[in-house]
UniProtKB/TrEMBL annotation:
PANTHER family: PEROXIDE-RESPONSIVE REPRESSOR PERR, ZINC UPTAKE REGULATION PROTEIN. The keyword DNA-binding applies. The keyword Zinc applies. It comes from Virgibacillus xinjiangensis. Gene3D superfamilies: 3.30.1490.190, Winged helix-like DNA-binding domain superfamily/Winged helix DNA-binding domain. This is Fur family transcriptional regulator. Keywords: DNA-binding, Repressor, Transcription, Transcription regulation, Zinc. Belongs to the Fur family. Pfam families: FUR.
Length: 146
């Protein structure tokens, strides 16, 4: 794992109210090093290389703690396994309907939609969720070969 990402994980945990454990740092490092929004099992496989005695329950508990503290976020898309994101900032996800890959989309202008919803409905808007589905370039290329 990259030294910079490891330091970023340490800094994030130190600046939070979360107790720092080597396993928790390793789980957060795995999230920060991944661009694929991994499942808990994928994180378990990665962290298990460094901590062979770690249990899946420990990984799940650490993911839960990181999400509860705002250091990560759990992504749930329909009936599929939850995926995890080490970037807790407000952003959106584009999901491939063929292979399931997930790519981040940062688009701050959608906050204007929340303001419009408040103005037109009188609701106090707390948040919104947007998922965009399509076929990634790699899957599209595979479709073209078929």
């Amino acid at each position: 794992m990259g030294k910079q990402r490891g330091q970023e994980a340490l800094t994030k945990i130190k600046n939070s109210n979360v107790r720092m454990t080597p396993q928790r740092v390793a789980v957060l490092e795995a999230l920060l090093n991944s661009k694929s929004h991994p499942t808990a099992d994928q994180i378990y496989q990665q962290v298990g290389k460094r901590f062979p005695t770690i249990s899946p329950a420990t990984v799940y508990n650490n993911l839960h703690t990181l999400c509860e503290s705002g250091l990560a976020q759990e992504l749930t898309f329909g009936n599929h396994s939850s995926r995890y994101d080490g970037d807790p900032s407000e952003h959106y996800h584009v999901i491939c309907t063929d292979c399931g890959s997930i790519v981040d989309l940062h688009y701050p202008l959608l906050k204007e939609m929340e303001a419009l919803a408040e103005q037109t409905t009188g609701f106090h808007i707390s948040h919104h969720c947007l998922e965009i589905y399509g076929v990634c370039a790699e899957c599209e290329a595979e479709r073209g070969k078929a």
